[in-house]
Specification:
Layout (H helix, E strand, L loop, with lengths): L2 E6 L8 H16 L4 E6 H4 L6 H12 L9 H8 L2 E5 L9 H10 L6 E3 L5 E3 L5 E7 L15 H12 L3 E7 L9 H18 L1
Parallel strand pairs: 1-2, 1-3, 3-6, 6-7
Antiparallel strand pairs: 4-5
C-alpha cells in the first residue's frame, strides 16, 4: 500500500483556491490508486512550534543523546517514511506561508530526513520518489522575466535534492488576481492538469 503524505499549508482553509485544487488532485489520485492511503497534516490545526531558542535547545539535547524516537521528531519520521508527498501552499510574498517554513525546519533532522557520508557529502534519507507542490498565484511567475522572483517552488526543489527525493513537480494556477484574466477558466484548466497528474503520480 502506497502512503501519500499531504501537507496542507492553506491558511484560508476551505476558502483557499490552492486547497480546492489540491483536493481535486487527491480525489483523483485516490480513485486511480484505490489501495493507496492519504495522511493529511493540517499545519493550521496541528501548528508545529517554531524553533525558538528553548525548542532548539531541547531538540539539540535529544539529538545529541541519540533519542531520535522522541515525539519531537515524529513529523520528520513521518515525512521520511512516506512513499509520495504532496504539499499544498499558496504563493505568498514570493514564497509560501510561514507555517510551511516552520514545518520544513522541524522535519529537517540529520539522520532522519538527510545525513552525511564518510566524505561529508549530503545523503538523502527520505523514501519518497516524488514530491508535488500544488499552488495558486495571483500573478504569473513562470515567465522568463518573472521566474527569478519565485522562491517557494525553488526552495522545495532544492530541499528534495537534500532529502533524496528524485522528482520534484509543481502544479500551479497562475494569474488569478489579474483582472484581465478569466479566473474560472484558469482554475478549470488547472483542475484538468491535476486529473492527468494524479493518474501517474
Amino acid at each position: 500500500m502506497e502512503q501519500l503524505l499531504f501537507i496542507n499549508a492553506c491558511v484560508r482553509g476551505e476558502r483557499s483556491r490552492t486547497l480546492k485544487l489540491a483536493r481535486r488532485f487527491l480525489d483523483r489520485w485516490q480513485q486511480a490508486h484505490p489501495d493507496g492511503a492519504v495522511t493529511e497534516v493540517d499545519l493550521c490545526k496541528d501548528r508545529p512550534v517554531p524553533q525558538y531558542p528553548e525548542v532548539l535547545a531541547e531538540r539539540d539535547e535529544l539529538w545529541n543523546a541519540g533519542k531520535l524516537d522522541d515525539p519531537m521528531f515524529d513529523l520528520a519520521h513521518q515525512f521520511a517514511a512516506a512513499d509520495r508527498i504532496v504539499v499544498a501552499a499558496p504563493f505568498w510574498d514570493l514564497s509560501f506561508p510561514a507555517i510551511l517554513k516552520i514545518y520544513l525546519e522541524r522535519i529537517s533532522v540529520t539522520n532522519i530526513t538527510f545525513g552525511y557520508d564518510e566524505q561529508g557529502n549530503n545523503v538523502g534519507l527520505c523514501k519518497a520518489g516524488k514530491l508535488l507542490l500544488i499552488t495558486t498565484r495571483g500573478g504569473n511567475f513562470s515567465l522568463p522575466e518573472t521566474a527569478w522572483m519565485e522562491m517557494g517552488a525553488r526552495q522545495l526543489e532544492a530541499l528534495c535534492a537534500m532529502y533524496g527525493i528524485d522528482s520534484f513537480q509543481c502544479l500551479a494556477a497562475e494569474g488569478l488576481d489579474d483582472i484581465r484574466n478569466d479566473k474560472e477558466a484558469i482554475l478549470a484548466e488547472a483542475m484538468g492538469r491535476a486529473d492527468a497528474m494524479a493518474e501517474v503520480f
